[in-house]
Specification:
The chain has five helices and five strands. By secondary structure, it is α/β, with parallel strands linked by helices. The chain has a single domain, classed as Rossmann fold, CATH 3.40.50. Helix 5 links the parallel strand 4 and strand 5. Helix 2 runs parallel beside helix 4 and helix 4 runs parallel beside helix 5. The mean pLDDT is about 95. The structure holds NADP nicotinamide-adenine-dinucleotide phosphate.
Length: about 140
């Protein structure tokens, strides 16, 4: 069975993905207790010793309103954290799926497709778009709503 490592596994989306797909895949769930994605060495250490086929990266700072006043924490977790985990996964030459958001678009001129230009309407949305740029063309980016 394909082994899927998953960050943010106890979050809203991660816990549901595991619940729905656990019969078809072996999940290796990671929470912040296992490692903090903002710590590059902790992140690399854990990823190095984990056996998996692909990584789904969900862990994020997700408080949209809070991000406006906690800007630094939001970018640190969403952009630096994504870079840390992506680098560690790339070193192992494993596949990477980055979960982004439809919120990278401002909603003013729908419909949107993969080639539409993002215009993130706030700090959280911008941090997710900046994180997309870290993995762009080297990983799968999925913008969920
Ligand atoms: N929910 C939505 O409607 C929605 C829509 C569009 C996109 N998304 C995207 O989908 C993903 C999951 O969203 P969600 O709603 O499931 O979020 P959530 O419930 O807030 O869960 C976020 C997860 O991130 C983990 N996390 C936060 N900071 C961390 C850190 N420094 N190190 C390690 N783990 C950390 C948390 O772990 P702990 O609980 O262990 O702290 C938590 O499990 C996010 O990337 C989000 O941008 C969600």
């Amino acid at each position: 069975m394909t082994k899927i490592a998953i960050t943010g596994s106890n979050g809203l989306v991660g816990s549901r993905i595991i619940e729905l797909l656990k019969k078809d895949f072996t999940f290796i769930p990671f929470t912040q207790k296992d490692f903090d994605i903002t710590d590059p060495s902790q992140t690399k250490k854990l990823i190095d010793k984990t056996d998996f086929d692909l990584m789904i990266h969900l862990a994020a700072y997700t408080n949209v309103a809070g991000a406006e006043t906690n800007r630094e924490a939001c970018y640190k977790i969403n952009v630096d954290g994504t870079r840390n985990i992506f680098n560690a996964v790339q070193d192992k030459e494993k596949k990477f799926i980055f979960i982004s958001t439809d919120f990278v678009f401002d909603g003013k001129q729908p419909p949107y497709d993969e080639d539409s230009s993002p215009n993130p309407p706030g700090i959280y949305a911008d941090s997710k778009y900046q994180a997309e740029k870290v993995v762009k063309n080297k990983a799968m980016i999925v913008r969920i709503a």
